[in-house]
Design a protein that fits this description.
Layout lengths: L5 E8 L5 H15 L5 E8 L6 E8 L2 H6 L8 H10 L5 E5 L17
Antiparallel strand pairs: 1-3, 1-4, 2-3
């Protein structure tokens, strides 16, 4: 395992009316992946000006493991198969190397689950 964490920023442009189905998949997937040994955190965001725009901010410990193992987990299969039908364009994934992290959880809605 590469001990260097990485951040994955994933954006989604949903077709109108697909938000509930998308969020159900995201919640099930996140509930499962939080138990993975290379998982650190994820935050689901919704566009303030566009309710059909979503962003995931994820931190993982091993890039190779994420793309070769985590993306192939059985709990992702239905989500991955259905995703193209929910989107107006392909999702975009960007990888970032963290330089600094600061966290303070003051808002009850931002508390870790």
């Amino acid at each position: 395992m590469d001990p260097t964490p990485f951040v994955l920023l994933v954006t989604f442009h949903l077709k109108p009316g697909c938000e509930d189905e998308f969020l159900a998949f995201i919640h099930r997937t996140n509930d499962a992946m939080r138990h993975e040994p290379t998982f650190v955190n994820t935050v689901v965001h919704r566009g303030a000006d566009d309710p059909n725009f979503f962003m995931l901010y994820e931190t993982w410990l091993d890039r190779e493991d994420f793309f070769n193992v985590q993306m192939e987990r059985p709990y992702r299969a239905e989500y991955e198969a259905r995703l193209p039908d929910l989107l107006t364009q392909p999702r975009e994934m960007k990888i970032f190397d963290p330089l600094r992290s600061d966290f303070v959880f003051r808002s009850p809605s931002l508390q870790p689950v």
